[in-house]
Amino acid sequence: MADSKVETISRLAQWRIENFGPCSYKSPILSRSASGAGKHLSVEKNRYLYVRLFPEPSRASKEQPPIARFVLRVSNAVANRRPYISPVHERLLRTCDDFVWPVDSTFHGRFIIDVEFLDLKICPLNGGEASSIWPSDGMMQSVSTQSTLRCLSRMLDEAIHADVTIHTADGTLRAHKAILSASSPVFQSMFHHDLKEKESSTIYIEDMSMESCMALLSYLYGTIKQEDFWKHRLALLGAANKYDIADLKNACEESLLEDINSGNVLERLQEAWLYQLDKLKKGCLTYLFDFGKIYDVREEINNFFRQADRELMLEMFQEVLTVWKPVYSQALHYVTKQWYSGCEGSFML
What we know:
Distance between the termini: 93 Å
InterPro entries: AtSIBP1-like (IPR044714), BTB/POZ_dom (IPR000210), SKP1/BTB/POZ_sf (IPR011333)
CATH class of the largest domain: Mainly Beta
Organism: Hevea brasiliensis
Pathway: Protein modification; protein ubiquitination
Oligomer: single chain
Protein name: BTB domain-containing protein
Domain BTB: 162-221
Low-confidence stretches: 27-37, 341-349
């Protein structure tokens, strides 16, 4: 049909037919949404007007047929002629027979067919749930988040309008009071009350190296890399506890749980006790006693016992009493009692 024209804007495709006579016609044309997803629209007429919507024939449409949600509107150029508006349709479109909309009306002369796409989904090649080709609220939020993180990264790296100096064990860093205050109630208190940090705009974090402190700042600014987190997680755990950064403390605990082994289990147990990390403490005790790995650290255990807190020692021996066979319970209970009452000496496995 030569006397026709298709225009698209955003999610709307409009087919203007200038002269549609009394004969039957069928003319597929290419209509594209703003995303570039190809569709064919055809119209044929005898007693009824039939509107069909189907994909542009291609390998992509065959392997990944679209799921379209749309509304059709047919209007005639005749004055005061009410348009025909379809219900909202949602169809998996493979062939020209997947969607046919009959309009019981006689059309002559010029008329317009509008197709408004409410959504258009594509199934991934490897299977799974179909996803929209248009940005959703979640996608837009993700784009916004990435943009914000890039800005925060520049603020930190280039010290843009930085208003606080941080002295570490081996160097100084620049940061922003607002970011620190929003991340930690301890920092917020420093800058809110009449403390020296507020007056001098200076913080001393001399128990951290500059590299570890930079990892802390990168976490607070949302730009930390995974390898930096793993490298500095023990220092980050101490900082999270000191400055009351709960989400960082939880992240460190979960990370330290992931790679407990014979070489670090006693250190992890001590950290768990020091910072009251119940999940990590339970994980270390389970590793040592439920799995019998305490025999792998027999050379380190005596030194650990000499330095460990007595309350922690009691918990360890109670774990032994729970896990090991009852035949050993009396002897182990005696050892526990002697150690807890202040008996000096070493404990040999």
